[in-house]
Amino acid sequence: MAKKKQKYYVVWEGLNPGIYLTWDKCNAQIKGYPGAKYKSYTSHEEAKEAFNEDYSDHIGTNKKTKVARTFDRSDVIWESLSVDAACSGSPGIMEYRGVWTGDAAEVFRMGPYDWGTNNVGEFLALIHGLAWLQKHGIKDIPIYSDSRTAMSWLRNKKIKTTLERRSSNVVLFQMMDRAVKWMKTNTWQNPVLKWETSKWGEIPADFGRK
Questions:
Q1: What is the pLDDT of residues 158-204, one digit of tens each?
Q2: CA atoms within 13 A of residue 36's CA, in its CB half-sphere
Q3: Distance of alpha carbon 67 from alpha carbon 112, whole angstroms
Q4: Which residues have CB under 8 Å from 107's CB, separation 6+?
Q5: Max CA-CA distance within the chain?
Q6: How many Å apart are CA 85 and CA 123, to the nearest integer?
Q7: How, if at all, do strands 192-194 and 143-145 pair?
Q8: CB-based contacts of 70, cutoff 8 Å, min separation 6
Q9: pLDDT > 70: percent of the chain
Q10: Residue 131 reports pLDDT greater than 60
């Protein structure tokens, strides 16, 4: 019997937007939610790319056709910090980093960590970036993230993850606990901006593993 192909379900609008590995978990986010927006993909990278783009770009297509294109980055604020994460599997081996947007010079890099998720990595990268800027007294430059989920967790000062706590990711959960404590006990002036992937291409902190 042929092995059933793994599907990745993107939820743009639902109880907890994100990428889910089963229909049941996806359905739990959209059932009864007015105007829920979701779609399935056959690869995690394709799903991640779609999640970081607008739902309208994916309506009525079974698979997004990739075409060569140029990007208009004229309105990017180059004097800024960009953060991103990479995860092999969901959950899987996760790492994250921050770079200067203008020249992609690496500022920090953490991991790899066992049994993490991309959402968790994106969030930790964002908090790490804000804390790093605060520590170095840099208050007037923005920080870019391509993750709506990470920005939502920051805005609400609360993590919403379905990641299972296990012995192999104790350190990761300790980092999340510290990140939440930092959010609730600190203030920051740096603007947190959404990196518009569909307009500007991949964020400079991207790990380039697509």
A1: 999 989 999 999 999 999 999 999 999 999 999 999 999 989 999 99
A2: 18
A3: 32
A4: 81, 97, 98, 99, 100, 129, 132
A5: 60
A6: 9
A7: parallel
A8: none
A9: 92
A10: yes
At residue 69, the pLDDT reads 57
Tell me the pLDDT tens digit for each residue of 27-79.
899 888 888 888 888 888 788 888 888 777 776 554 444 444 578 899 999 99
Of 203, 210, 209, 191, the residue nearest 104 (C-alpha): 203
